[in-house]
């Protein structure tokens, strides 16, 4: 779990660094590789979709968000399938894990604590459980998407000055930023509600880190970015509900047959 949090921290720092670095590149050279392969395609896609909806760049960004989420959907469904399989494994090792945790709480000896932690990792390996199975791949894949969208808005006067709902797409907005943070916190709670209690406790801090990261990055960003996260988070909630219907039933059936 500590390794996962460390990885997430470096991803956030890396994204901020890349955004600032690419900002200089796009400002100084409009023909840079970053502008050519990321910014221009996003600008063209947003403009094309906006033309289909009477010049509404806000609707265009919403549609692009849905398209990108549909493309990423197979990866996310596979991730949920792995989580469902891990839940069964965690239930199988729960009695042994409870015993080790009780000993870990009871002892104050450093060597004994280290030995018990090694026993815990050995138990994970024995049952084929990886506590870090969620990984950072989905977030890594979104990094170029976020950067491309950010600078497509920033580099286009037409998009940046466009009003959508109550905000300008190119200006920061506290309300849509707060909504994005709340949506992602709720999305996290929905995604974790079907996991074992032990794993929920391990991932508890992630419920705060993810929305805090989104709010922090959106405070001074164009409002189009938290709009992307708001729609994306809502899509993920629906996707999680779909994944449960696809993968939860076999697990339930299997459990029922064992009880008989």
List the helices and strands and how they pair.
Blueprint: H1 2-28, H2 33-52, H3 57-106, H4 110-126, H5 137-155, H6 157-160, E1 163-164, E2 167-168, H7 174-192, H8 197-202, H9 206-218, H10 224-259
Antiparallel strand pairs: 1-2
**Averaged pLDDT, please?**
73
How many domains would you count in the coordinates? 1
Helicity range of the residues?
over 70%
Q: What is the strand arrangement across the widest sheet? A: 1-2
Beta-strand portion reads under 5%
Order of helices and strands: HHHHHHEEHHHH
| Unreliable stretches covering 5 or more consecutive residues | 1-10, 16-29, 249-260
Major pleated sheet = 2 strands, antiparallel
Question: What is the helix tally?
Answer: 10
Oligomer state equals: single chain
- Distance separating the two termini: 36 Å
Shape: elongated
Count all strands and give the number: 2
Radius of gyration: 22 Å
- Structural class assignment: mainly alpha
Describe the structure.
With 260 residues, the protein is mainly alpha-helical. The chain has one domain (2-88, 136-248). It has ten helices and two strands. The protein has helices at residues 2-28, 33-52, 57-106, 110-126, 137-155, 157-160, 174-192, 197-202, 206-218, 224-259; strands at 163-164, 167-168. It has a two-stranded antiparallel sheet with strand order 1-2. A hairpin with a 2-residue loop joins strand 1 (163-164) and strand 2 (167-168). Helix 2 crosses helix 5 (137-155). The longest helix has 50 residues, at 57-106. 23% of the residues are buried.
